[in-house]
Design brief:
Low-confidence stretches: none
Number of strands: 4
Structural class: alpha/beta
Number of helices: 4
Strand content: 15-25%
Helix content: 40-55%
Shape: globular
Order of helices and strands: EHEHEHEH
Largest sheet: 4 strands, parallel
Oligomer: single chain
């Protein structure tokens, strides 16, 4: 069975954390994309648990810290929340063929 993939917006907020807790309990799932604002410690925790391919953060300071911590890992860290949301929407909509 193929894994179902998820993207979580606002992953460090209460609804985002609740969503991730539900996803964690499901079988055959993968979180590929996490969008967050600036809660550095929570983002680090989520990356360690879910191992997303892409993390987008709104805070430039958090972006720099994450880039330094995960510089040798296969993870894409992006900044500019609103622009990246629009750009990544196209990646996920057109990436998988039926």
């Amino acid at each position: 069975m193929k894994k179902k993939t998820f993207a979580t917006l606002g992953s460090t907020g209460s609804i985002g954390k609740s969503s991730l807790n539900v996803i964690k309990k499901l079988k055959d799932t993968k979180v590929e994309l996490i969008f967050a604002d600036k809660n550095f410690r929570e983002i680090i925790n989520q990356v360690k648990i879910f191992r997303p391919k892409i993390v987008v953060v709104n805070s430039f300071e958090t972006f720099i810290k994450l880039k330094n911590i995960f510089k040798n890992k296969k993870i894409i860290i992006l900044n500019d929340y609103k622009k990246q949301l629009n750009d990544l929407r196209h990646i996920f909509l057109y990436r998988h063929e039926p």
